[in-house]
Design goal:
- The protein is 21% helix and 32% strand.
- The chain has 276 residues and is an alpha+beta fold.
- It has an 8-stranded mixed sheet with strand order 9-6-3-13-14-12-10-11, with helices on one face. Strands 4-5-8-7 form a 4-stranded mixed sheet, with no helix packed on it.
């Protein structure tokens, strides 16, 4: 067993997700919605909402104390781990504050890059959203596909991106090497002014996604990296090789790529001193 496999065993990743195949023998499951109540009577969705609000209300230093990083996971491994741990994958805007508001090079190098909990869907520049968006990629000479059935209210729109936060979506296997992302319409955030060139842009207020017209490099701008074609995947943050790339927002990585992931338990209550 190599060191990577040993690390995954320690983290409790199932054997079926530790194959050389980037997605292993991913067990296809029928989608189901969690509606359990916790001890306080809160539904799962209420717990998720509270956890996100708490993260956004906390100081970056306090956030660093309540999230936990795991390394070397592909998309399905990250989702499986979060589900098993009863945690949410930390959103892009939270990572943005950690990376850009604090100078902590050692912490950055130890924990990044990461796959964030912010999932995006976009089409090529000037191409209208049709009924379906499909992203395909090749890994170890095997081709994979992820598709999304676009709700009617978004069809026909151009130069925009659809955004959803974990865990408000699920990815289901529909055939060999083919997967489908399913999202309820009310969880989708439409961001307009999503351009087709890499470069510096201002951020969308809620999600931290670069949008609008190109701007000059500055502390409140972020560098967009995207594909020329359609894409479905997580926003990735950080660059393991260069501390200066903390402002990069990568919207072009493959689901089979292995990244770190930061998890936030749903049952944490912050101290008053941790709040902004």
């Amino acid at each position: 067993m190599n060191s990577a496999q040993s690390s995954l065993r320690v983290q409790g990743i199932p054997t079926s997700l530790r194959s050389n195949d980037p997605f292993g023998k991913y067990k296809r499951e029928e989608p189901h919605e969690v509606r359990q109540l916790d001890a306080t009577g809160q539904s799962y969705q209420e717990q998720v909402k509270k956890a996100r609000e708490m993260l956004r209300s906390m100081k970056p230093e306090a956030v660093k104390q309540v999230i936990e990083f795991h390394k070397g996971l592909n998309l399905f491994q990250a989702l499986a781990l979060a589900k098993r741990e009863g945690s949410i994958i930390v959103p892009n805007d939270i990572h943005d504050r950690i990376l850009t508001k604090k100078e902590d090079e050692q912490y950055f190098k130890e924990n990044y890059p990461v796959r964030t909990g912010t999932f995006i869907i976009y089409e090529a520049l000037d191409k209208k959203f049709g009924s379906t968006v499909v992203f395909s990629w090749e890994d170890n000479k095997v081709k994979y596909f992820i598709s999304f059935e676009v709700p009617k209210q978004f069809q026909g729109k151009t130069n925009c991106v659809l955004v959803v936060e974990h865990p408000d979506f699920e990815i289901v296997g529909i055939d060999d090497n083919r997967y489908e992302i399913r999202i309820k319409d009310e969880h989708i955030n439409l961001i307009r002014g999503f351009r087709g060139e890499d470069g510096w842009y201002k951020q969308h207020t809620e999600t931290g996604i670069p949008q609008g017209r190109k701007v000059k490099e500055s502390s409140d701008a972020r560098y967009l990296r995207r594909l020329d074609d359609s894409y479905l995947g997580h926003v990735a943050r950080g660059d393991v090789f260069n501390y200066d790339y903390r402002g990069d927002v990568s919207l072009d990585d493959r689901p089979s790529d292995r990244f770190g992931v930061a998890l936030m338990p749903l049952n944490i209550t912050p101290e008053k001193s941790d709040l902004k």
